[in-house]
Amino acid sequence: MPKKINVKTAAGSVIYPTLFGAAVIISWQTGFLHKLLKTDEYVLPYPTKILHIMHENSDKIMLNVQASVKVALLGLLLGSLIGYFIAIIATVFPKYGSGGLTIVSAFNAIPIVALAPVFINWTKDVSEEAEVRSMVAKVLVVTVTSMAAMSVNAYRGLTELPPFSDDLMKTYAAGKVTEFFKLRLPNSLPYIFTALRVSVPGSVIGALVSEYFAEYIIGVGRQIRENILIAQYATAWAYIITACIIGIAMYIVLMIVETIALRKRK
Amino acid sequence: MKKIKRILTSKIFVTLIWIVALIVVWELFAFHVEQTKRTPENIQPHLSGIVDSLTSSRKINGSQTALQMVMENAKATLSRAGIGYIIGIAAGSVLALFMSLSGVIEKLAFPYLMLIQLIPILGMAPIINAITGDIAKSRIIIAAILTFYPVAANTLAGFKSVQKEKHELMYSYAANKFQLYTKTMIPACIPYFFTGLKISAPMAITASILVDTLQGGIGLGCLLSQSLKGAMTRYVFWDIVFFSAVIGILSFYLMGVLETILCPYKRIGKKE
Amino acid sequence: MRSHATHCLLFYICERSGLVSDLERNDIEIMLDDVGMVYDGADGREVQALTSVTMDIHKGEFISLLGPSGCGKTTLLRIIADLLQPTSGKVLVGGETPKNARLKRRYGMVFQSAVLYDWRTVVKNIELPLEITHQSKKERHERALKMLDLVGLSDFADHYPRQLSGGMQQRVGIARALALQPEILLMDEPFSALDEFTREKLHIDLLKIWRKTNKTIIFVTHNIQESVFLSDRVCVLSPHPGRLSAVIDIDLPRPRTMDIRDTPEFTAFVSKVRNSFEGV
Fold first, then answer.
1. What are residue C53's DSSP bridge partners?
2. Which chain A residues touch B120 with a CB distance below 8 Å?
3. Cα–Cα–Cα angle for A171, A172, A175, nearest 5°?
4. Cα separation of the two ends of chain B
5. CB-defined contacts B:C, below 8 A
6. C71: which of A160, B108, C86, C102 lies 20 to 30 Å off by Cα?
7. A210 touches A197 (CB < 8 A)
8. Looking at residue A110, what is its pLDDT?
9. Do the strands C62-66 and C216-221 form a parallel or antiparallel pair, or are they unpaired?
């Protein structure tokens, strides 16, 4: 009895969305979507045209992709490390640490559009080259947005322990450092991934948006905007599709890493 | 003595200390910048300067003070963000309801829901603007899309969180589906619903401001790019930055307050 | 005249031969006939949760289903409640299928944990089934307060479940199960999560409620002493495969008080029950 239903359920999860997606793409290519949204094929080019442009300009696209991904990953790494560090401080000094966590979460609520210009101003003197300056500023933006998710979740991971596990450590007369490395750190691993599920897509968005405000013109996000400004819609769409692919690809990588890291726990 | 200690270590006091510490650090940097730069307010003005510009009655562009300008633009941005927010909430919760009611709809929508989360929607702002051609509409649409995902995902999680026993209890009363939802599922998902609201409130505001920057007109973002280009004193820029930051944080806490009002049972302590 | 005599004669013969002995006793609340439950286990092999369970439960009886984990006692209770469908055999609850009995709300169920809604006050939790059956607001409130009084928690009507101890929460669960005034009460290890002191007190309370309301109670437990103390009959279930290994009449006087536990008769019944387990 159970086996039959499982196959049906699994098939359903794949078939329905695929059919729906195919329907959307078909209506796009045939122009039906344009009628629906009351727009024309310049602003919303046919998928085949977009693919064509992507193929033709693949070198330039890759250059921009590299720039954006570098910013996103670097910011993600820095932000996660700092966020984890803040969580550690909050664990060791609980009373003062929780205030710090509130502040960090508050930072998360600050619109990126307010942060980006501020950081770009602050980093004006970091280097002679516009490229480097912009890079630093953008990385800073992504760092701040990644910090909040990581610090809150890591704090939970470091402090929400299974019942009596810290008591157990005490009965072994284990020092604080030992307790940290043998109990709290491993315990926090799933929570780290919970944070990353939010901050990985967030880092991509942060990178793209901060590119708008940066001095040096590079990056997938910036290219979207620049191309729209000069009415090169097909190219803009090429970059949009690229941005989506980046977001999805990074998330898939995250899922793979998470599965490997947590495989023993299931 | 004990009471003083309690106040010293209470959460509010600690947060205050952190804020004071941040202000001190800021001012230190501002002093440093003052010594070394020609136009310090471009990089990092004194906080007093920012406060000054907000409270002064000097007219910036001939007809309004700085504060008036910020407020007028803020109204436009926030109202559009608000409309988008409400649309997103409605759409998100309705979708979550349908996904909970129908397995087919859930399977259909789930991957696309994930997709929305992964696609940098903010990055797509320019193109949505180009499609709709109308900047007011684009602000609302993007704010709605950004609100839609957190509300839908969290509300759905709320529906799924109802334990099996509660379902069985309803089954044993031969309750119909309407009763099941109105008496059990919907009240149970309210805390999760508010988590979604808290997450998406700042995002709706961010979306609205961002779309502003793409085009001229009224709005905080427009003002932002204008002040960056030097159309008016730099302090306006900082006013906007701080104002947006404060609004973002406030919206987050506003949702929290709303939740506490609507769910009094959460505040009640546990009996030991 | 003659037909009446024939009727009596026939009846006499039938009764002597045991054919219709229970027909006369038309007070069978629940009838189980060769009930079996088989499902696919985790490793793909068949698990026989229950095999050939046959017994009758009479109106107003207090029956325990006793056994270790895996013996099928909870499965059996759920079959009676129509939360599960048996793979073989027949079940009649009040003369009807379990499904009809459930749709007519002939039983109230008490789960292992109280399953109270923490967004409703205690009295509103008890009103829940009454809302589903569309009673008027006034009636609902009155009935809920009456039930609350029955379990001795009238002072806590406007508290939230969080503010109550585990034992008190279970009492609210029992009050709620009685709200629709069902004929049958199905209880799935309701006291197993509580400490012994609370449990003993609740035993007395439950027996008091049972005396007052005259319900048929089916009580699932893994505690031998509990089953002997509370029940008229103890149905012993053994695992692998789940089956009814014995039904033991508990001929102890009622009302049962705490002192009974120290009597040799009580101990004897406990031993008898324990020895009737098979394969554990």
1. C35
2. 201, 204-205, 208-209, 221, 243-244, 247
3. 105
4. 29
5. 63
6. C102
7. no
8. 80
9. parallel
For residues B244 and B175, the answer to whether their CB atoms sit within 8 Å is: no
- Alpha carbon A10 to its chain's center: 28
User: Reduced to 3 states, what is the DSSP secondary structure of residue B30?
Assistant: helix
CA-based nearest distance A247→chain B, Å: 5
Check if C115 contacts B (Cβ < 8 Å): yes
| Whole-angstrom Cα Rg for chain B | 23
Please report residues of B whose CB lies closer than 8 A to that of C129: 173
Residue whose structure tokens are 């040096």? A216
CA distance A124 to A216: 12
ipTM above 0.85, yes or no: no
Sequence letter at residue B97: L
Could you tell me the two tokens for C6? Answer: 């024939």
The yes-or-no verdict on residue A266 having pLDDT over 60 is no
Q: What is the pLDDT of residue B231?
A: 64
3-class secondary structure, C181: coil
Q: What is the pLDDT of residues A22-79, one digit of tens each?
A: 888 888 888 777 777 777 777 778 888 888 888 888 888 888 899 899 999 999 999 9
Expressed in percent and rounded to 5, the helix, strand and coil fractions of chain A are 80, 0, 20
Query: Which pLDDT score is estimated for C23?
Result: 43
Q: At what angle do helices A220-229 and B125-132 cross, to 10 degrees?
A: 20
Identify the pLDDT of residue A1. 37
**C220 forms bridges with which residues in the sheet?**
C65, C188
Is-contact C28 C54, C-beta < 8 A?
no
Question: Could you write out the DSSP letters of every residue in A186-247?
Answer: HHHHHHHHHHHHHHHHHHHHHHHHHHHH-SS--SHHHHHHHHHHTT-HHHHHHHHHHHHHHH
Residues of chain C short of pLDDT 70, as ranges, are 1-26, 279-280
- Measured in angstroms, the CA of C102 and the nearest CA of chain B are apart by 6
Reading phi first (left if > 0) and then psi (alpha if -120 to 50, else beta), residue C31 is in beta
Site from B172, B180, B259 to mutate, C interface, most C CB atoms within 10 angstroms: B172
- Torsion on CA atoms A43, A46, A48, A51, rounded to nearest 10: 30
Distance CA C63, CA C60 (A): 9
Q: What pTM was estimated for this model as a whole? A: 0.78
Residues of A in contact with C39 (CB under 8 A): 1
* Residue where the block lists tokens 């546990």: B270
Strands (E), C59-183: 62-66, 88-93, 107-110
Shortest alpha-carbon distance between residue B120 and chain A (Å): 5
Q: Which residue has the higher pLDDT, C263 or B21?
A: C263
Query: C163 and B271: CB-CB below 8 Å?
Result: yes
Chain C CB contacts of A2 under 8 Å are 40
Amino acid at C80: I
SS3 B233: coil
The pLDDT score that the predictor gives to residue B146 is 87
Flag whether pLDDT at B270 surpasses 50: no
- For residue B272, pLDDT over 50 is answered with no
For C37-83, how does the pLDDT look when each residue is reduced to its tens digit (9 = 90+)?
A: 998 877 778 888 899 999 999 999 999 999 988 788 999 999 999 99
Q: Say if residues C182 and C105 touch (Cβ distance below 8 Å).
A: yes
Mean per-residue pLDDT of chain C: 88
**Pairs of CB atoms within 8 A across A/B:** 150
CB contact under 8 A, B123 and A240: yes
Q: How far apart are CA A239 and CA A241, in angstroms?
A: 5
Model confidence band, residue B119 (pLDDT cutoffs 50, 70, 90): confident
Kindly determine whether residue C109 and residue B169, on different chains, have CB atoms separated by under 8 Å. Answer: yes
A196 and A254 in contact (C-beta within 8 Å)?
Answer: yes
B220 near B206, Cβ under 8 Å? no
pLDDT in tens, A155-187: 888 888 888 888 888 888 888 888 888 888 888
